[in-house]
Design a protein that fits this description.
alpha/beta; Rossmann fold; Elongation Factor Tu (Ef-tu), domain 3; 2 domains; six-stranded parallel sheet; six-stranded antiparallel β-barrel; 14 strands; 28% strand; elongated
């Protein structure tokens, strides 16, 4: 997949089928849109192009007044899109100036003049342009003028629920990582580097690797203990991960993400870990003694080994 980081990198315009959106999470609903895009392109001899934005528009239009946590970093999103078989992804730098571009200018100046769009495929609820005034109906009205066809893809559902990025965020905030995985079509993941911590886990016979996230706007699941897979140096291990404040040790507001890698004994400070969430085992709890905590950690370990 060719990655164009800005409009100035469009050097060889080809007739294409285009989709537009942030595609945070690249979940099953997004994949339905991409699949339809690729079918349409194949039928009409077009290249496939995704137009997306960086940073996420919400980070700009909210002006930093409300925290925005996302399912994927830009790098994660591109790696997931690469696997779909798209020909190219155009990443438009999203800033305050771009946020003021009207929808008809976006269609004319970018989709038509810069990309030579012959077909535009969007999701059922997609909107774009200044104040999100560009919707499917307005896209259709301009399609005849500019010579492209349009198609709206209906929502992808699991049971009675529509798969969406917002719904997946809700599930993660509830700790329902197993259900979120069904909506994503894969396990939810995060990446980080191993940093020095209090080394208290060693005194419990459960040494942990403290993680510093690679992407500060990454959405974390609800605080608690999770069974996870840990990828280190291309090898996969089972693990148990804690997100939260370790109330037994009264660490106050010292928030940590730490993982105990099962059947693993190596010094990995500074190394990268890739964490994949399998199931939430329990919420955080303040134990009456170190021994009570150790007993619970052993239970967590046995549960993690079975998953």
């Amino acid at each position: 997949m060719r990655v164009l980081r800005g409009l100035d990198q469009i050097t060889d315009k080809k007739p294409c089928a285009v989709t537009i959106g942030t595609f945070d999470g690249v979940h099953l609903g997004h994949r339905k849109i991409i699949s339809r895009l690729m079918e349409a392109a194949a039928q009409n001899g077009l290249c496939t192009t995704m137009v997306t934005f960086y940073p996420h528009p919400r980070l700009i239009v909210r002006g930093g007044t409300q925290p925005v946590k996302l399912l994927t970093s830009q790098q994660e999103k591109l790696e997931l899109l690469e696997k779909t078989g798209l020909d190219q992804a155009l990443i438009i730098p999203f800033d305050e100036s771009f946020s003021k571009m009207k929808y008809d200018s976006f269609i004319r100046d970018i989709l038509v003049e810069r990309l030579d769009a012959k077909q535009v495929v969007v999701g059922y609820d997609h909107s774009f342009g200044k104040d999100r005034e560009g919707n499917f109906e307005r896209l259709q009205k301009l399609s005849g003028k500019f010579g492209f066809s349009t198609e709206k893809v209906e929502p992808f559902k699991l049971g009675d629920e529509i798969v969406s990025s917002s719904r997946i965020r809700e599930l993660l905030k509830q700790g329902r990582v197993d259900t979120a995985a069904e909506f994503l079509g894969r396990r939810y993941a995060l990446c980080g580097s191993v940093v020095y911590g209090a080394k208290r886990g060693r005194t419990l016979n459960f040494p942990t690797a403290n993680l510093k996230l690679d992407y500060e706007n990454k959405l974390l699941p609800e605080n608690g203990v999770y069974a996870v897979d840990v990828i280190h140096d291309k090898n996969k291990y089972k693990g148990m991960l804690n997100i939260g404040f370790k109330p037994t040790f009264e660490t106050g507001h010292a928030f940590t993400i730490e993982v105990h890698i099962l059947e693993f004994d190596r010094n990995i400070y500074g190394d990268q870990l890739h964490i994949k969430f399998k199931k939430r085992l329990r919420s955080e709890k303040k134990f009456d003694s170190k021994e009570a905590l150790m007993a619970q950690l052993e239970i967590d370990k046995q549960l993690s080994l079975k998953l």
